[in-house]
Amino acid sequence: MENKYSFQNYLYFDRWVSYWYQLREVLKLKPESLLIVGAGDGIVSELLKKYVGKLKTLDINESLKPDFIASVEAIPATNNDFETILCAEVLEHLPFDRFEFCLAELKRVVKKSVVLSLPHFGPPLKLSFKLPLVKEIKFAFKIPIAKNHKYIGNHYWEIGKKGYGALKIRKIILKYFKIKKEFVPFENQYHHFYILEK
């Protein structure tokens, strides 16, 4: 059986781009302790171990060998246990009615900041313009399409699908955190990042 996290199946270019932004945003925060929710292929955690003194991973999949085998709904940690939490492309794997509960659990465990990313559906229109001696100009936006989301064993919901608008998701997040910054990388328009403060 082929590994889900093999290079051919998992590490396509857009995902490498997302990894770069995850690393950049976490390192900007200079955390002394970090919890990574969703162990994945382990590339991000291995790189961050070089910069963070206390780093732990959490996943429900025992075969990924996380430090904590648990759900984001019940993190085995005390209040304010980690200075920063990285939770990238995880919460959409739970039903939407658990979204707020997960945010509350992240808020309980984190001391300062959360780097969160969620899938954002919608065909992008991207333009870039570059001249010698002039900084490249990039512009991108999503074309809104009111499409119903169908669960096929992976994502229960995605931003941009019918009933899961970006404004709705933002309002829910603001119940639990301050949004310091949010963005969708030009190179990967499918991942929507939120930099949150407690």
From TrEMBL:
InterPro entries for the chain = Methyltransf_11, SAM-dependent_MTases_sf
Task: Tell me where in this chain the Methyltransferase type domain is found.
Answer: 37-114
What terms describe the molecular function in GO for this protein? S-adenosylmethionine-dependent methyltransferase activity
Under Gene3D superfamilies, the record lists: Vaccinia Virus protein VP39
Pfam families from the UniProt entry: Methyltransf_11 (PF08241)
This protein is called Methyltransferase type 11 domain-containing protein
Q: Which organism is it from?
A: Candidatus Portnoybacteria bacterium RBG_13_41_18
